[in-house]
Here is the input.
Amino acid sequence: MTLADAAAEADALAQAGDERSLASLRARWDDELEAAARNVDYRVRAQAYRAIAQFRFRQKLELLRRGLEDESPAARGSALISLEALSRRHPGDVNAFRSLLHELAAHDPNLAVRRLAVICLKNGSPQRDTLQLLEGIAESDDADGELRKTARVVGSALRKKAVSR
Here is the structure.
């Protein structure tokens, strides 16, 4: 079984609510996941970062930080996808990575990574600096149209969240 197969199985177990089997699978694949995240091949690293969310491996958040700082846009994107998935029920995860997410959203050379960083921010708390960043991206004539649209939508959702508090 490959890491991708194990991650798919973990995702199925999580969706079925089988926490005991999921925990057992996590324990069996813990070292393999760590090793994959340190692999020289960016494709292997990207799979490892994506698997963190599939395994619902909240103990690996610091490993995701490494993914967000990876030289490969594919690895950064996979780490962002995992962070977004893990933070849906835990906004503190986004808040813990907020400054790094701001940096990726504003300055990453890869447009897809920038959009994914903006999408991650929607799961966090509506802090003023995030709202200002999203407004700046949304109003920038230099930014890509899809990035501006995403920033506008996420900023609007966060403002609504702030009002409902």
